[in-house]
Amino acid sequence: xxxxxxxxxxxSGKSLVSAVLVEALKADYWKPIQAGTPxxxxxxxxxxxxxITQFHTETHVLKIAASPHAAAKFEHLAIQLDDFVLPETxxxxxxxxxxxxxxxxxxxxxxxxxxxxxxxxxILVVNLYLGCINHSLLTIDYLKGNDIPVLGIIFNGESNxxxxxIIEQKSGYRVLLRLPKLSLINKNIVKYWADxxxxxxxx
Length: 203
Fold this sequence. Notes:
Layout: E1 2-7, H1 14-25, E2 28-30, E3 33-35, H2 40-45, E4 55-56, E5 60-62, H3 68-74, E6 93-96, H4 111-117, E7 122-127, H5 132-145, E8 150-156, H6 161-171, E9 175-179, H7 187-199
Parallel strand pairs: 1-6, 1-7, 2-4, 2-6, 3-5, 7-8, 8-9
């Protein structure tokens, strides 16, 4: 099974969550669009301990840390949905999106359309900050309104019971993991949270 990691916005912790998922499932990792540096594939690779995971080459590597449609335009490139073909593997793949759900990849399509193109259910990262309820519910409304399958939510950041409970209640999605705000992130930390995720994992 392949899963598409997306979020309610940028800098939400998708790469950390992807590393936890990769380690938990011993899955492969693929970042279809990389905009700017550092490379997320390198970041995830540095946090994964198992020797099963393969790290697949990005489809598009863009020089500027910007929305893919803008970064591609700067390089006189055109990104199309049919550019994205699943890497050849017998393993599951964790596919990490770029930015949030409605980040454009061209004038017509969004990052979330890659998940639909690849028939990969979504794992939604909700990072906890003032304003995350609104951003979460807008994102969830779009996912539901467009019949995009969602496996569940991973909360990321300093716990906020009121925010988490209203998002969980309104979405109806199950919570796969609650990642606290981490002062240290390394392979051992990722392995710990991967084990925690597996205690709550079912399809």
